[in-house]
Amino acid sequence: MEAEISAYQEANRTGFLTRLDVGPQAFITSSRARANNQADWPDYQIVFAQHGLIHDGTTRVPLALQIILNRAESVGEIGFNSTNYANGERSDVNLALIDFKLFTVLSDMEVMIEGIKLGLQVMENTTSFQAMDVAYTESIPEACRLVPYRSNQYWMCYVHQRGYSWLHIVGTCAMGLPGNPMTVVDYQYKVLGIAGLRAIDGSVMPRTTNANLNGGVILTAEKGAQAILAEYSDT
């Protein structure tokens, strides 16, 4: 470990610590998107993530295949537990009622399965991955053991058992027009009906962006800062 740290601290960094955990990524247009005349707008993401290990050269290095549905049709809900609040509860965790409603729209699952199959095709049938002797070794979920292996039904079962929501959650304070019942903030990030309160973060995006939120959140913050400066510089 000391040798690896020393190699990393050199001007021209080398060694294990210079490796990226998240490797190649691709944005793919699904058959659903193409059918909806969105052939130039990718709607899911394939990520190959290498989980590095410092080892003696005999241990296989885990490689994760991640399929991310970037433009889901399923929409979740968040509510407020007024009963708990009336009883004195003040914990945000205990007051929030969250239902992600993952895959309540069937075509979301179809896009996910399409992505899984393409990802495995890349890992198993391309010369680059074959040269690395890559093999799919994920265990079968107990609930899916009676389903034909790697069939559409199997992948549906697998996703229900081991899938999870991704990092980029938005929409709880959506920006929109005043007449829209889902609108929380206006174009200046002001919360409707509450004077002196703004929301300026990823929550104002009505739908998630087509990739990671970082760039969009930075732009949101810049626009929000400009709105605040413009308002108070005139007073």
UniProtKB/TrEMBL annotation:
Pfam families, A to Z: GMC_oxred_C
Domain Glucose-methanol-choline oxidoreductase C-terminal: 94-219
InterPro entries according to UniProt: FAD/NAD-bd_sf (IPR036188), GMC_OxRdtase (IPR012132), GMC_OxRtase_C (IPR007867)
Domain of life: Eukaryota
SUPFAM superfamilies, sorted: FAD-linked reductases, C-terminal domain, FAD/NAD(P)-binding domain
Membrane-spanning intervals of the chain: none
GO molecular function, one term: oxidoreductase activity, acting on CH-OH group of donors
Family per record: Belongs to the GMC oxidoreductase family.
Protein name: Glucose dehydrogenase [FAD, quinone]
UniProt source species: Folsomia candida
